[in-house]
Write a structure and sequence with these properties.
Elements: H1 6-19, H2 25-40, H3 47-58, H4 62-69, H5 77-92, H6 105-145, H7 158-165
């Protein structure tokens, strides 16, 4: 019935992967917190590699770290990065950065630092807060989720389909 709806199927597959993670709840929660922390940093495009590297280095659950990184995806990233920029700008006490009026290297360097520095500061703050919340929430949810039974997608009976065509 839901076979044609790809988004619902993808959400279900992510839940199934999360349920099937091996390891103690503490290990999975640490991996998830690490992944969400890295997902909150402005390293879009390299987050999975960074999460895998640090999960391997810190001996945390690598799959949970990679799943946690997906907190920033093409749909949520603009909102998360905009919020991080605002938080970082407020913490640093900076003004909004406007577009440069002249086309010089110095103007664009100033523009880059005016955007990247607040994003990094806001990203680290958001990463610590969201990582801690993810750790607590994952630690609490793992025993509950492990008891769930998720049904398989309904299978079509191909032999009946071919009989009907005859």
């Amino acid at each position: 019935m839901w076979r044609g709806v790809g988004f619902i199927r993808q959400v279900k597959l992510m839940v199934v992967r999360f349920i099937r993670l091996r390891g103690l709840p503490v290990e999975i929660a640490k991996g998830m917190a690490l992944g969400i922390f890295i997902g909150m940093t402005p390293t879009f495009g390299f987050q999975m590699v960074i999460a895998l590297f640090f999960a391997y280095l810190l001996r945390e659950n690598r799959l949970a770290a990679i799943l946690g990184v997906w907190v920033t995806n093409p749909v949520t990233a603009p909102f998360i990065y905009a919020a991080e920029y605002e938080v970082g700008r407020l913490v640093l006490g900076l003004e909004h950065v406007g577009l440069p009026t002249e086309f010089t290297w110095q103007a664009y360097t100033h523009l880059g630092w005016g955007i990247l520095l607040p994003m990094w500061v806001g990203g680290i703050i958001a990463g610590v807060v969201c990582g801690f919340l993810a750790y607590v929430l994952t630690l609490w949810l793992i025993p509950v989720i492990k008891t769930w039974k998720i049904r398989r997608w309904p299978r079509r009976h191909w032999h009946k389909k071919f009989k009907d065509r005859s």
